[in-house]
Each structure stands twice: as C-alpha cells, then as structure tokens.
Amino acid sequence: MPVPTPVLEARGLSRVLPGPVPVTLVNGVDVAVAPGEFVAITGPSGSGKSSLLYLLGLLDRPTSGTVLLEGRDTAPLDGDELARLRLEKLGFVFQFHFLLPEFTVLDNVLVPMRKRAALPRAAMTEHALDLLDRLGLADQARKRPDQLSGGQRQRAAIARALANAPRVLLADEPTGNLDTRNAQTVFDIFRSLAADTGTAVVTVTHDEHLAAQTDRRLHLVDGRCV
Ligand SMILES: Nc1ncnc2c1ncn2[C@@H]1O[C@H](COP(=O)(O)OP(=O)(O)OP(=O)(O)O)[C@@H](O)[C@H]1O
C-alpha cells in the first residue's frame, strides 16, 4: 500500500535559546504525521512538549531542521507567509480558551473565517452555527464566553480552531483546566475529528489515560523524542 504524504513533518528539528548558556528546548526531532492521525506529545514537565508544538504549529522558528506542511518546506517562508499558512491549514487549542470576552461564541468562531474571507458572510455564519451544533453548543451561540461552563468554553475554542477546516489541529494541554468528564469529551471530539474528516490532531498532554487513547505517542525527554 502506498504511504500517504505526511500532512505534517519535522526533520531534524531543534530549538536552542541563545545566551551565555544556550538552552536546548527541542533537540533533533524527526516526526511524520499522516492525515487523520491522532498523536499525543508526552513527557515530563520541562521536556520540551510545548516548544515542539509551537515549532510544529509554525508559531516559533527552529534554529536548525525544518517543518514541512503538506510536503512543503516552510523554512524559506517569511512571517506573512507563515501567518497565512497558520490561518488556512492549522488550528490551535490551548489550555486556556483565549476566547474574546466581549464577543458572542458565534462571533468568536467567525473571527478566523472573516480573516480568511474565503466564504460569503451568510455562508460563514451558517458554517459557524453548524460547527457549534456539532460540538453541542447550538444553544450557546449568542452567549458570551463568561456565560458558559469551562467545558463549553473549551468546546467553543475547538469550534474556533476548526473554523477554517484545518489540515492539522494542534493542542497544548487542552484538558488542563477541565474535569475528567469534560477532558474525555475533548478527546472524543479529537478522535472523531481525525477519523471522520482526516484532520490530523497533535496534542500535548500530561494525562496518561488520555494519551493511551491516541494512535501514537511522541515521548520527549530533554527535548529528544525517545
Ligand atoms: N523563553 C524561555 N526562556 C528560558 N527557558 C525556557 C523558555 N521557554 C522554555 N524554557 C525552558 O525550556 C524547557 C522546555 O519548556 P517547554 O515549555 O517546552 O516544556 P514542557 O514539556 O511543555 O513543560 P510543561 O509540561 O511543564 O508545560 C523548560 O525547561 C523550560 O523551563
């Protein structure tokens, strides 16, 4: 069977903070993520999990090595080109939801769609409402984030991350502020997202029970994948 082109690939990825005593955050990581794959980044505190995720998400630049997105080398791209790729191809979820407090949930989901401007206005609203419905938030669309529960807020943040139908969803401890039930719901959403839409999901987690539910684990120790 032909091996599919990885949607996301790291080759010899390293990130060193310069200084009198340079600090190595990520050290020579090679990884290839296939479309529809659900991958956990695990490892002890300070092992470089978030640093690796930021590199994979084109939010930080490696000091050596490169990231390929859908087979395209991102190393030569400038800041604007990277921002465009993030907007069009990647979705992000963090431990804190980072929803805009003065906007409704619906308007929060519309922000990345408006920025991309790939759809007429009415179609954007329809798509955003459909996403919220799929995440069990149909009744919350016109509320502000502070009127939602913690679990609902994180699902709204996931809806926003999915607004532009990313090829890869990157999540940094997305269940860190959630109780067990809501944490499981988030992982259930990730699992069906990967299986049903082919979106690759890469998530940092401390939680062994959740990590065991993914297809594959990248375990980091001192910035190296072991
Ligand atoms: N800007 C920075 N300046 C100095 N040290 C940093 C900086 N960013 C990260 N570090 C250090 O680099 C190491 C890796 O950090 P990173 O946040 O990637 O680890 P992590 O595995 O995600 O940790 P945690 O599980 O605690 O969130 C840590 O030791 C951290 O303290």
TrEMBL record:
Classification via Pfam families: ABC_tran
Nucleotide-binding is among the record's keywords: yes
GO function terms (MF aspect): ATP binding
Residue stretches making up the ABC transporter domain: 8-226
Keywords, ordered alphabetically: ATP-binding, Nucleotide-binding, Transport
Transmembrane segments: none
InterPro entries linked: AAA+_ATPase, ABC_transporter-like_ATP-bd, ABC_transporter-like_CS, ABC_transpr_LolD-like, MacB-like_ATP-bd, P-loop_NTPase
SUPFAM superfamilies referenced in this protein's UniProt entry, alphabetically: P-loop containing nucleoside triphosphate hydrolases
Superkingdom of this protein's organism: Bacteria
Coiled-coil regions listed: none
Similarity comment: family membership: Belongs to the ABC transporter superfamily.
UniProt xrefs under PANTHER family: IMPORT ATP-BINDING PROTEIN, LIPOPROTEIN-RELEASING SYSTEM ATP-BINDING PROTEIN LOLD
Protein name, as recorded: ABC transporter ATP-binding protein
Organism (species): Azospirillum oleiclasticum
